[in-house]
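@channel sequence for tomorrow's demo:
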Amino acid sequence: MVKGQSSKGRQKIEIKAIQNEEARQVCFSKRRQGLFKKASELSILCGAIVGTIVFSPAGRSFSFGHPSIDEVISRFLSSVVNPNGPAASGGPNHDNGGSVTDTVNTLNMEVLGLEQSLESEKQRKERLQEATEKEMGGRMMQWLNANVFELGLDELLEFEKKLEEIQAIVKEQINEVLVQGRHPPRFLPQPPMDIASTSQSADPNPMASTAPNALAAN
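structure tokens (generated this afternoon):
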């Protein structure tokens, strides 16, 4: 009986860098597909959220993710930002607010809320200022309509203070109008009625009528 040749069996392949460029590219393609297949099986069998990113020796990127590589990256970054969150503890986080996108949305909502609060505060301030000015105007009218002969010393001093405030406001408004060039033209005062009637009457000799007036003025 002839003895059969003994088989060496499955031998372990030594893990080292492949020097041949073509063989290295073929190995990379096969191993990459196998890696993605294992990642897919892990997500299907265990319901895990899996993400894998591989760069070829030439610098090209290949990725696999379940449910998507973007969501996996977002959850990973959120675990870095918030290490005590659900994503870091391994709990369910399909609908949590720990992802980067949810964090950005939360911050945007906070900014929007602050802007609305600021606008509401601005409107409240305007209403308060309007009510204050209206109340001050009403008090000012009461002072202007008051009978000064019936006021006591304290009331007269306060009335004087209010008048000084009004005077300051009027001066400020006059200066503003003068600066802006919006002040109304100044008209000469109207002559007395007798002079006006004389100037309006027809005079056949205007020089003669002017001479007596000049002498009278002298």
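heads up for whoever presents: Strands lie at 50-55, 61-66.
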